């Protein structure tokens, strides 16, 4: 087999595999697979933590694969949770979120945390996380959770805030915080105090 035929064969094989995977995902995701019961329970607990849960489709006994702001794999595990810009209010982030260990995308942008801090522990459990967005949050206080620094697949991290808010990174240093984030490509830390980490970080990172 010459190189042209070999490349053609590889191209056809890749197209067939892609088609099969797409077809399998369509069949499994839309007909066969239901939301994993543990994930559905965690989402409902998370909903109860909001003061104004504008999530009408999140109802017990229904398939969470079809709930608004939720995306699932063909196996029914939740991989995406887009709660950004829903005018949500809560007194902190409910630990039920950390049960969703298949999460790859999470947005809490624009959420009012009513003077709470983020949990010190829990983010390290979200090992599949690629996109983490806490942009334009309100009334959020305290140290950035160190567990985020253990998310090796994380490609985008966004923290920004306004209003009566005080976010900071004191321990560990900024350099240590990002040291294990080998997949990180986009980093936004607006209105986050990292002054205690010194000036060395600025030679390698732009924030």
TrEMBL record:
Pfam families xrefs: LRRNT_2
Localization (cell): Membrane
This protein's record includes keyword DNA-binding: no
Gene3D superfamilies membership: Ribonuclease Inhibitor
Keyword annotations: Glycoprotein, Leucine-rich repeat, Membrane, Repeat, Signal, Transmembrane, Transmembrane helix
Leucine-rich repeat-containing N-terminal plant-type domain span: 37-70
Membrane topology: Single-pass type I membrane protein
GO cellular component: membrane
Main location: membrane
Name this protein carries in UniProt: Leucine-rich repeat-containing N-terminal plant-type domain-containing protein
Organism annotation: Eragrostis curvula
